[in-house]
Write a structure and sequence with these properties.
The chain is of the alpha+beta class. It contains three helices and seven strands, in the order βαβββαββαβ.
């Protein structure tokens, strides 16, 4: 069985199944849903499914990743927003063209910049 780094535009039971899989494998849970308000994606990452938190450098790198997406979209702050801390983050305004790269990069950054919790 292949582990998918994120899940997008799925039914609630599929999100639940992926969440449980992430918890069993000690991986972050990343989901993407289209935001009908502007047609771009809302991406959420949850590190509660794993036993680590992001480092300060990881938080900065993830913010840079989203800043790059905002520049690409050239949209106002009314249509792009985010919140990030060491366990939870969400990003509203990821383009469909960059969704796969954004989510995979987000996952990769969590693996590179993490603090182990005991």
């Amino acid at each position: 069985m292949t582990f998918h780094k994120y899940i997008g535009d799925s039914k609630m039971f599929e999100y639940d199944k992926h969440y449980k899989e992430c918890r069993q494998l000690n991986k972050p849970f990343i989901k993407a849903k289209i935001n009908p308000r502007h047609g771009n994606y809302y991406v959420q990452i949850d590190l509660i499914t794993c036993n680590y938190e992001l480092t300060d450098k990881g938080l900065v790198e993830i913010k840079k990743l989203f800043d790059k997406e905002i520049k690409f979209l050239n949209m106002s702050a009314d249509f792009t927003n985010f919140s990030i801390d060491d366990e939870l983050a969400w990003f509203d305004g990821v383009s469909i063209e960059h969704l796969d790269d954004f989510c995979n990069s987000l996952y990769d950054l969590t693996q590179k910049h993490r603090l182990k919790s005991d």
